[in-house]
Amino acid sequence: MLIATWNVNSLRVRLAQLLQWLKLARPDVVCLQEIKMQEADFPFDEIGAAGYECAVHGQKTYNGVAVLSKLPIEDVVPGFAGEEGQARLIEAVIDGVHVLSAYCPNGETPSSDKFRYKQRFFSALRAHLDNLGKSALPLCICGDFNVAPEEKDVWDPAKAARTCGFHPEERRWLKHLTDWGLHDSLRLVDDKGGQYSWWDYRTGGFRKNEGMRIDQIWVSDGLRPRVRKAWIDTEPRGWDRASDHTPVLAQLEP
Description:
By secondary structure, the chain is an alpha+beta fold. The chain has helices spanning 11-25, 44-49, 113-132, 157-160, 168-178, 185-189, 205-208; strands at 2-7, 29-33, 53-57, 65-69, 73-78, 89-94, 97-103, 139-144, 182-184, 198-199, 211-212, 215-220, 227-232, 248-252. The strands form 3 sheets. Strands 3-4-2-1-14-13 form a 6-stranded mixed beta sheet. Strands 5-6-7-8-12-9 form a 6-stranded mixed beta sheet. A two-stranded antiparallel ribbon has the order 10-11. The longest helix is centred in the middle third of the chain and has 20 residues, at 113-132. It starts with a strand and ends with a strand.
């Protein structure tokens, strides 16, 4: 099973890019974030023609998550208590694997109310995992966590530590979540720094490779032995009208 995650930053804008990438990368499962549309507006027909079933938890204009799969999608659960009225999590079972697509809050600034909402979200997400069961469960949580785990995941750690995305508090929240029994799939196979999944439009970050690795695929203890490859596909970030994020992938053996 080839699993991918991608914050498309508006599916209305990025549908052509998504369809092109599905044809090139041929993932089995794709978790999308920031689709920025309601389920009624989701392009089920176009994505279905590409060979994918879809489970959608949408919201007008903001947020929104989805799971696409070539395999049957079962037991879909849209949303959880920590969203507080926003569409930020959807989960499903695909070929026995619990797949969660998550769009964690940005946090805006460390002094803002949105930063405290981000804290509550991570705490609620950990509680949600606790309620799902033990980490022996074959589970992956994929998405835009809006937190880079380590210094090697940020182009300027000293600067980033003063803002959202790499603040020490945020890293503690992420660690509390992953202490449930989650493993960063990329780091299971590749320890190299300087690999990013997001680059700021405003600063021309992609051209200078000044980015952050805030999109990840975390696998449970039960799924960890099945990870064979994991990587970041930077090609779509260079396309016309690209999202500011790029796809992240993990290959699981049967």
